[in-house]
């Protein structure tokens, strides 16, 4: 097994071997896709579902992901270019008060789970007050956060005191050199300091790993080996090419191929019972403390049981995490919209959600 922090033979040759740059056309890159406005009627008699958070396919949405910032302290190759992306002016981003108000509106409709994302959420200076404010909203039972962990170690205790109850950390490799090549920034040791500390502060710490052919597919078994004596939930995420170009598709690894490598190494694995609305197919090695799973957005989508909505850092409601249809809750709030009418806007948008996201499936 790879020793954490071990370097592979230099960096110049591996850069050639492990190149993963996604060569999208400008209009296909995630930073340049223009949102499609969701058409909303101003009157309260507009068509909505059985409840405002129920879409036309009967899916009830109880989970809201809120992006706190577009900024990130890494430049991961599959996420953004080296020079970064144009940022939305600060005045266009949601304030902490607006985030709390939006949370309250959703909570009154039945949302009980919030996840804070980015960008990198730890770059938001008012992160702790935001978590405290969300925690004071009636009906919210869980506050989670997804982070790269680079700047999180020293903040963990205060964040938990503020109300953070779940944590996902993103790490795609166990090699320090590969990490710095992929992220284009240092930070590997900081991430592991965070992992080592967080493992003892949360019931089951989740580690998210995007798997890419010719980059980290060979590390899947090493990640799983960590679960044998550590209470970790390793979640292997299928790489999602943007725009469907052939170059990016070559990096895609279906979860069954990953699972096959794990079974080849460890023998029989135990399939765990899925919970309602789970996005991960969960497994474990017999006798292990932790578990592992696969998020199969590409090969076996889970749209039929989706209960997730997203609010972007600039206040747009996205009813599908992988779609570009949006409606601005920020503009509604800043124009003086009351809570009932805001919830009507939310209900109309949710009702228009499609049966499944398009353009990202592998047959």
Automatic annotation (TrEMBL):
What residue stretches are annotated with the Radical SAM core domain?
Answer: 56-276
**Gene Ontology BP terms:** Mo-molybdopterin cofactor biosynthetic process
The record's annotation in CDD domains points to: Radical_SAM, Twitch_MoaA
Q: Report any Pfam family annotated for this entry.
A: Mob_synth_C
Pathway, per Swiss-Prot/TrEMBL? Cofactor biosynthesis; molybdopterin biosynthesis
Its Enzyme Commission number(s) read 4.1.99.22
User: Which metal ions or organic cofactors does this protein require, according to UniProt?
Assistant: [4Fe-4S] cluster
PROSITE patterns per the record? MOAA_NIFB_PQQE, RADICAL_SAM
* UniProt entry keywords in alphabetical sequence: 4Fe-4S, GTP-binding, Iron, Iron-sulfur, Lyase, Metal-binding, Molybdenum cofactor biosynthesis, Nucleotide-binding, S-adenosyl-L-methionine
Which transformation does this protein catalyse, written as a reaction? GTP + AH2 + S-adenosyl-L-methionine = (8S)-3',8-cyclo-7,8-dihydroguanosine 5'-triphosphate + 5'-deoxyadenosine + L-methionine + A + H(+)
GO terms for MF: 4 iron, 4 sulfur cluster binding; cyclic pyranopterin monophosphate synthase activity; GTP 3',8'-cyclase activity; GTP binding; metal ion binding
User: Record's superkingdom?
Assistant: Eukaryota
List, alphabetically, the InterPro entries matched: Aldolase_TIM, Elp3/MiaA/NifB-like_rSAM, MoaA, MoaA-like, MoaA_NifB_PqqE_Fe-S-bd_CS, MoaA_twitch, MoCo_biosynth_MoaA/MoaC, rSAM
Query: Which EC class heads this enzyme's classification?
Result: lyase
Q: Which NCBIfam families match?
A: moaA
The protein's name? GTP 3',8-cyclase
Q: Which organism is it from?
A: Panagrolaimus superbus
């Amino acid at each position: 097994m790879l020793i954490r922090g071990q370097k592979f033979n230099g960096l110049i040759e591996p850069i050639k071997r492990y190149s993963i740059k996604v060569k999208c056309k400008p209009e296909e890159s995630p930073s340049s896709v223009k949102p499609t406005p969701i058409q909303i009627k101003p009157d309260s008699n507009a068509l909505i579902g059985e409840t405002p958070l129920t879409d036309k396919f009967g899916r009830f949405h109880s989970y809201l992901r809120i992006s706190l910032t577009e900024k990130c302290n890494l430049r991961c190759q599959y996420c953004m270019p080296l020079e970064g992306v144009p940022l939305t002016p600060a005045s266009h981003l949601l304030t902490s008060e607006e985030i709390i108000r939006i949370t309250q509106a959703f909570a009154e409709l039945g949302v009980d789970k919030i996840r804070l994302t980015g960008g990198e959420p730890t770059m938001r200076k008012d992160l702790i007050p935001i978590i405290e404010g969300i925690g004071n909203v009636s009906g919210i039972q869980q506050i989670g956060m997804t982070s790269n962990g680079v700047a999180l170690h020293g903040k963990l205790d205060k964040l938990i005191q503020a109300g953070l109850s779940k944590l996902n950390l993103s790490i795609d490799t166990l090699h320090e050199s590969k990490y710095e090549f992929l992220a284009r920034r240092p930070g590997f040791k900081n991430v592991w300091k965070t992992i080592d500390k967080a493992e003892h502060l949360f019931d089951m710490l989740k580690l998210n790993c995007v798997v890419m052919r010719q980059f980290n597919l060979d590390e899947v078994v090493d990640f799983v080996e960590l679960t044998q004596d550590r209470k970790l939930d390793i979640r292997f995420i299928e790489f999602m090419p943007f725009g469907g170009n052939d170059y990016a598709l070559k990096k895609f690894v279906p979860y069954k191929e990953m699972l096959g490598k794990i079974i080849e190494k460890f023998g029989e694995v135990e399939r765990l019972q899925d919970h309602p609305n789970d996005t991960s197919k969960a497994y474990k090695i017999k006798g292990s403390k932790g578990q592992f799973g696969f998020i199969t957005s590409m090969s076996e989508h889970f749209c039929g049981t989706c209960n997730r909505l997203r609010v972007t850092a600039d206040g747009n409601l996205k009813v599908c995490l992988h779609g570009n249809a949006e409606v601005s809750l920020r503009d509604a709030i800043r124009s003086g919209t009351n809570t009932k009418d805001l919830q009507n806007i939310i209900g109309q948008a949710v009702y228009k959600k499609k049966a499944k996201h398009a353009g990202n499936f592998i047959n």
